[in-house]
Amino acid sequence: MLRCMYSGVSGLRIHQTRMDVIGNNIANVNTTGFKSGRVTFNEIFSQTLQGASGANGTVGGRNPMQVGLGANISSIDTLMTEGAAQRTDNPLDMKIEGDGFFIVNGGGGYRFTRAGAFRIDNAGNLVNPEGLNVMGWQSDDHGNIIKEKVSKLQILKPENKYSQPTQTSAATFSGNINKNDANLGTGKEGIVVNFNIYDSQGYRYTVEAKIKSTGTKGEYSINIDGTHGIKDEKGNSVACTFPTTSNTIQFTPEGKLDTSSGATTMLSITGIDTGHTVTNADFGDVKIDFTGLTQFDGKTTAKGEAGNIYGLDAGNPPGTLSGFDIGSDGKILGKYTSGPSKILGQIAVARFQNPAGLQKAGNNLFEVTTNSGEFDGIGVDPTANGGRLNGGVLEMSNVDLSREFTDMITTQRGFQANSRIVTVADELLQELVNLKR
Length: 437
Known about the structure:
This protein is mainly β. The protein has helices at about 5-25, 400-435; strands at about 35-45, 45-50, 65-70, 70-80, 85, 95, 100-105, 110-115, 120, 125, 135-140, 145-150, 160-165, 170-175, 190-200, 205-215, 220-225, 230, 235-240, 250, 265-270, 285-295, 305, 320-325, 330-335, 340-345, 350, 360, 365, 390, 395.
């Protein structure tokens, strides 16, 4: 039988496979996170009719004489190039900028995907459209990420629905004191500054502080009545201890608070008694910083507020989860009605030495193979190696239609040419049969 017929058959077979891959690529041109395939060919082997010979003193060298026996599929590669971005403005849609894969698990082991179309299920878990849990790292009670083995991200678990109240441990006075303010005169009440503080259970108390002139230029006393200076939400007085001596502040000739050695810039409210209530909540010392006060011409604007000059240690009541954002680093930031935010967890990504070695498992998912490299169960930060997550965006298919249609034309012509080989070989065989009539 003619060798060319088998070569033509092998050509038909591989071009058919290539057309199958092209058809699948085009079918998934709008599939989120899809990675296109590419087929490459190689020749099978050649039959040697005569080997090569070297030159000698009388004749020159001769090249080998070989007849090829067809073509074969060398590889069907998955192209891991990054797809274009499609904006959706859905905060749960995520696109990985750079290398890496989202990690998902539904009980059958880890799977990996570039498709970041996520949602929240009825249990509060972050899942993909097939219901597989999106994996990441958990946070502790203080919002610190614990980078250990990845687990499912249950955003709306019970402990995340409410924020833990914290007690106030610092307060700040700021604004201006006009030395000619009528309220600073002899026999006057003084400038009254009110601000709120919170105990360990989130109950609010109102502190009333009075600023009065001592009669010395640029010197003022700060007073919080130890019996009536703090009131709870019902208006009940709460006992406390506030210094009655050395509770004065002094301004420099430039109108700034005197911070020289020995000058008072900070006082503490101590011994706050919440025992009159049934809550039996705790209250630590509240340190009040006065360095934000000035004595300039203009209106008196002195005010007090919980928290230090950086806004920390202000305390807060309990709050309910009102929403959340996913940052470019994958951290899920919960927003609460009480004001403070809390880190609820972080999405982790998986990276592989050879991403093209991953095996497609359907539903936009990949699984590891012996040639992709193993997943360590921990993952990496999305921002490692310059990467990031882009919220409200999905990664589209990386199929290039212009290339696919061009490949379709060349594949069609290749198939047509190989079918012609079979046809011509058949005609040659017919002529051979016709030698005997």
